[in-house]
Amino acid sequence: MPEYPRLSFTLPDGSEVHTDVHTLLNAGYAGRSQDDVAAHVAELAELGVPAPSTTPALYPVAPYLASQTDEVPVQHGRTSGEAEWALVITGPSPEDVLLTAACDHTDRALEVHGVAWSKNAGPDVLARKAWRLVDVEDRLDDLVLRAWAGDVEIQHGKLAELLTPAYWLDVLRSKGWYEPGVVLISGTIPMHHGVDQFTSSWRVELSDPATGNVIELGYRVRPLPEPIG
């Protein structure tokens, strides 16, 4: 049997849930307003990023890229994260679907050659805490995503800006992918203009204004040594 990465999450009641990730999916162009998505695709095209054949998009990536780490090694200076939420399926019932914070660390130099390639060139970093989706689904749109590149806020928005977890769960069911060990990363919200995304650290926060509860993750970006040859 293959060995898959094991993720562990602490729930609000203090219990821990573990899952071995065999399928990792990255949503893209996943804004709830597809008019805004179309405008974003046009902006990216001006930067040389190829347009997707359809939106929203869904990119399968290598499952070993699912990680809970404090450090991300990179090969060059043009990589950066993205504030996202993640669905983690740990069992067959609705109570087994977890919601957590995630950061999709992407190779921006490779992105101009293919978004799917760039997604496979860096890890999806997940938080170590999670909520059961059923416990927050009545107020999902009010949950807040924030990200900091270094010490500067680079993203701030509500989950209402993105396609819902229910939308993506329906996609998983339609594809036969709804099963334990599947992780889906949501796609991201817009970045603030003028903020340098190529920094030495990233931090993402998912917060619930109704309760004050917060899930967060953070990691350092470590440049690898120069190659020989």
Strand-helix topology:
Layout: E1 6-10, E2 16-20, E3 23-28, H1 34-46, E4 57-61, E5 66-67, E6 71-74, E7 79-80, E8 83-89, E9 97-104, E10 106-107, H2 108-111, H3 115-119, E11 124-126, E12 131-132, H4 133-136, E13 144-149, E14 152-158, H5 165-175, E15 182-185, E16 201-208, E17 213-223
Parallel strand pairs: 3-15, 5-11, 6-17
Antiparallel strand pairs: 1-2, 3-4, 7-10, 8-9, 8-15, 9-11, 9-12, 13-14, 13-16, 16-17
Describe this structure in words.
- The chain has 229 residues and is of the alpha+beta class.
- The chain has a single domain (6-223), classed as Fumarylacetoacetate hydrolase, domain 2 (Alpha-Beta Complex), CATH 3.90.850.
- It has five helices and 17 strands.
- The protein has helices at 34-46, 108-111, 115-119, 133-136, 165-175, and strands at residues 6-10, 16-20, 23-28, 57-61, 66-67, 71-74, 79-80, 83-89, 97-104, 106-107, 124-126, 131-132, 144-149, 152-158, 182-185, 201-208, 213-223.
- Strands 3, 4, 5, 8, 9, 11, 12 and 15 form an eight-stranded mixed beta sheet that branches. It has a five-stranded mixed beta sheet with strand order 6-17-16-13-14, with no helix packed on it. A two-stranded antiparallel ribbon has the order 1-2.
- β8 (83-89) and β9 form a beta hairpin.
- The protein is globular.
- The mean pLDDT is 93.
- InterPro entries: DUF2848.
- This is DUF2848 domain-containing protein.
